[in-house]
Amino acid sequence: MAPTCPHTGLFCRLSLSLSLFHHPLCCSHSSNPLICLNPHTMASNHLNGDSHILHHPKKPKLSSTSTSLITPSEIQSEFCHHDPSVARINNGSFGSCPTSVIKAQQVLQLEFLRQPDHFYFNCLKEGILKSRTVIKQLINARHVDEVSIVDNATTAAAIVLQRIAWAFAEGRFDKGDVAIMLHYAYGAVKKSVEAYVTRAGGCVIEVQMPFPVNSNDEIIHEFRKALERGKENGRKIRLAVIDHITSMPCVVIPVKELVKICREEGVDQVFVDAAHAIGCTDVDMQDIAADFYTSNLHKWFFCPPSIAFLYSRSSPKCLDLHHPVVSHEYGNGLAMESAWIGTRDYSAQLVVPKVLDFVNRFEGGIEGIKKMNHDNAVEMGQMLAKAWGTNLGCPPEMCASMIMVGLPASLAISSDSDTLKLRAHLRENFGVEVPLYYRAPKDGEVGVITGYARISYQVYNKFEDYTKFRDAINKLVCDGFSCNLLSI
């Protein structure tokens, strides 16, 4: 049994229509056992960010050893290691890991330290294969060999982009061939594109994404324009790097539609950076049909940090991928190379089956969690926007478990530096942890919102986390605060 949390309080008290004490995800009736998870049981009720509801084919059921649904007090106990003084509404950055999974990880760590040779020769490869098999079913890949486990999505990006760099170096690509990426791509991935593609002689074209955004059509329009630029003068587009959920600002991208457009326009390969996706929105490899796809399991799938999967489609074009850290398994396939990159702690990669047991304690499994988190993120975002007289950064159907909320203009956010200073001020003086975004006004724009907060909702969050943030901003506004009053 998980330890009793040292602090008390309801798991969630929503003054609107939500009460997780009566929410089906937190049913306390042990007479309703949850033995199996079908990841698409609730697909017809869950939006993946497209402008319509997707109906996916059923995936294989994933077995679980859990026999009863989790209760609100058990959820509270699973996350009682969180600092109770902080309104933690930033799950998107580092994720969260329940106590039961942390304990399972610690057992594995001690098993290795007790007899590392036995662990290496008899446990490690089999354990990683079990985790890869669970992931394969979760993402609806055709073969387990298409799934490799790596540290994080940044590592996965380096693996894919390293292959592109070698193609330039070996003369398979011509200097000036093109890679397309979103303007709002994650900063580390943009740096990787610079290091591997630009340095090798490739040309990088960024898709200028609108924000705030009102529809998928706006994104698709800008993406097509970038493809047209990429094909000018007979150039070939060798790679498109597409986010599934952009990090900052946070928007769910119509990734399936963009992949289809890439196929129609002759783009060689498509890599989807979906760091936030698994556990947050629908992830189906056969439906999305990208060549490469990566997602972190420590963000929204409750794994300890750090672990991600890299899917590479079974295709001649997707061969010859290698881990950037070369070790004894080099040449035995990416999955094997990634399973041993030297002596290190592999426990995060081994607890995926235990994480699945935790997820399956919620009614509907991960599908139920995704729907609850999405609904609550939208409701909390709308509550904050109404309280501040602002707006959301995108329609509800274009967000998953995170949403962008405009901040009052009187805060005078005028630079990226202002967002960092204000974020630190909220952390240190109000106990609120939330990332902030500066949206520079365009030419001719007057009186627009320049500051946005990216709020997350995960199962451990409660209504008070968001009212604490609301009240902190209201106090700053009431006190006449502006960002130029903060020192660097």
From TrEMBL:
It holds the Pfam family Aminotran_5. Transmembrane segments: none annotated. InterPro entries: Aminotrans_V_dom (IPR000192). Keywords: Pyridoxal phosphate, Signal. Residues 1-17 form the signal peptide. The keyword Transmembrane helix does not apply. Residues 127-315 form the Aminotransferase class V domain. This is Aminotransferase class V domain-containing protein. It comes from Carya illinoinensis (Pecan). The lineage of its organism: Eukaryota, Viridiplantae, Streptophyta, Embryophyta, Tracheophyta.
